[in-house]
Design goal:
The chain is an all-alpha fold. The protein has helices spanning 2-12, 15-26, 35-39, 44-63, 71-102, 119-142, 147-179; strands at 113-114, 183-184. The protein has one domain (2-195).
């Protein structure tokens, strides 16, 4: 039964499917929207949650760089950035929990290597890269009449796509090696102290600065 669950995970969670899912979300009207999260199930729900928050973060980060609005407006952007970033990290941890739950009974080889990056964090980086590729593609197409600028942006786009493929290979390799007992990763909690009123001294007068 456990082996069947492992095989099912490896068949379902491939880098190709992750890349395709990120692209499918971009095709949804009014993206980022929580519709993708509501429709997703299993491990794809936290993956959708992660992509939604990264996409929302992208827009907020752009807005936070404005110089033509009041400081109070930028402060609102910053607070939304904090909230989206916390939710993004929560989703990464949820992805890891599902994977580790499925692979919990795998017997590791004595020389199995500990991967410094979790599967969830790789998927998170793939989400961010998909946003960069989407934005760079748009900018490149805007400069199609300017050959020099077009070539410059095309070079950057090619580099981003190479990074995406390298991460895709890393994800597939890690999951397969884990299933064979050759590698593993641990769940690391982010412990964002600045968002916790019990840990941030500027949010709690009882904590020494």
């Amino acid at each position: 039964m456990r082996q069947n669950a492992t095989d099912s995970l490896l068949e379902d969670l491939t880098s190709a499917r992750v890349i395709a899912f990120h692209q499918e979300c971009f095709q949804i009207n009014d993206w980022p929207t929580r519709i993708a999260i509501q429709k997703a199930s299993g491990i794809w729900k936290p993956i959708a949650e992660n992509h939604f928050n990264n996409s929302s973060l992208w827009d907020e980060e752009d807005q936070a760089r404005r110089t033509d609005v009041q400081d109070s407006t930028i402060a609102q952007n910053k607070r939304r950035i904090d909230a989206y970033n916390q939710a993004r990290n929560d989703a990464i941890e949820a992805v890891n929990e599902i994977i580790l739950g499925v692979l919990a009974s795998i017997t590791l080889d004595d020389d199995a290597w500990l991967n410094s990056e979790t599967a969830g964090s790789i998927i998170d980086r793939m989400s961010i890269l998909s946003l960069k590729i989407k934005a760079m593609t748009f900018q490149r197409n805007q400069h199609s009449l300017n050959s020099e600028r077009y070539q410059e942006l095309q070079k950057k786009l090619d580099q981003l796509k190479t990074q995406e493929q390298d991460l895709a290979h890393s994800l597939d390799q890690l999951l397969y090696a884990f299933s064979q007992g050759q590698a593993y990763f641990k769940q690391y909690r982010q412990h964002k102290m600045y968002n916790d009123p019990n840990l941030n001294p500027y949010l709690n007068d009882t904590i020494q600065k």
